[in-house]
Input
Amino acid sequence: MRPASAPIGLHLARAARLIGRAFDDELNQAGGSTPVWLVLLNLKIRLTANQRELAEAVGILVTAGISARIYNHQLCVLDQALWPVARKSISDWKNEYLDECAGCAAQERCGGLFSSSTLRRSDHIRRIEPEILPAESCAIPSISSTK
Output
């Protein structure tokens, strides 16, 4: 005897597939992709806990020929392997730095914080000492030097 309707699991699987396709379409229309979104999501929710994983993901994107950039993030929270893809693009009038940032050697290249988001921040924000910065030959590019 056949059930009166399709099993709920089948409905769920179809709905998930439709939602996944719609999500991918929206990402593509916005100029993004699932791998880029996953990297950004990882960065947002896992912060310093898995920076090596994030660096590996960025490496995969770069190896695949996908331009990888991390915008508006605090350099002190990023693994140094990610600094070359970090970009500061917040307008100066929207950008703020915390007391912990005073005297930071990377402040001019750091994403800082949006002035509207200073209440929600990482507990790992700290000043970067000059000896931590990479040599000039591998300095962190600014948004104006690479797009």
Q: What stands out?
A: The longest helix spans residues 8-29. The chain has one domain: 33-138.
